[in-house]
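Q: Sequence in, structure out?
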Amino acid sequence: MALSLEQLRSPPSRDVLLQFLIEQLEALGFPATSWQPGSIQRSLLTTFARVFADVTELVKQLVELGANQLASGAALTAFSRSVYDNIRNPATKTRGPFRLASTAAIPYSLTPGQLLVQNPSGIQFTNVTGGVLPAGGVLAVTFEALLAGANGNIAPGSPLALITPLAGVTVTNPAPAGGTWFTSTGQDQESDANLRLRNRTKWATLAIETPRDGVLNIALSASPAVRKVAVNDQNPRGAGTVDVYVSGDLSPLGASDLALVQAKLAARFFGDGNNRVRALTPATVELFVAGVVYFDANFDAAAVRNNVLSAVFNLIAVTPLGGNSFPPGPSHVIAGSDIIAAVEGGRFEPAFLDGCAERPRARPVLGCLKLLEYLARDQDLAI
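A: Exactly. Output:
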């Protein structure tokens, strides 16, 4: 009998296969249950079970490789490239101008790669342009994060320290009102969910007049920095107009990335493309989540704090622009239960979020500490 798709995608474990072989041999009259571990017969059965388990796992991977909604990881990367001609967006580095101010009596001649700047979280940047910092003057220099990823999108005005010794020189990252200091947004490698969405919506780009899914695909493909898109195609500025809100996983886009999205979208609309469709930065909301985390005293408080923050940020990263909606109930929200589930599912045990209530009696933890954290990152969060 042919196996169903779900059966092919649910390979049995080695232990299950071993038990199956033993039962089959018992049914044929062999005393298989009496074969002890280490015996020749039991060792042969264990080897067969391991081989069969590996084969069934390979079958699962081959089955999932052939479907956009099932493939993941490297298989999805290969599938996307071969079927949709889509390449998974790599992680990118944050880049933008820092402002150097000097109180020294001498000028400094700066070369690319000479300076190293660090924020309190240990995120480091190096200069990719140079110039002459005059005595008692200021100079705008372009810096780039040493490591690719969204962590480089620090907030404007963040505390920064110049690791490279330059007497009398301070560094800041100011931003224009309502904008970001970085021009190129740092992002983590594109997620499976995002790549699947680009694959699925690519068909819509074949239409002469771009429909909603086509707009989604064009925006997502315009720059590796684009990770979230929301489309208002209800004629927001008059007949035939479309507003497209774009952002990264956890931060707004830099000016150059936003310009790339606008150019790609405008090229696909008839008439005055720049007026008919506009790429926009969504309003940012400073997110504060207050909670009490109880954890065993044997765990390091700083490590627990970092894991809690990471869990919340991962939740924000997969939350759509504008938050979640629960019709006919609330809209544009992040459910408290989702935050609790994210924290409880973190990489540390035992730990749980208890909404600032008294210590629960149902789950006592010996020697536990109470850690109150206001989960606010040093950057604006686009939600």
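The longest strand covers residues 95-102.
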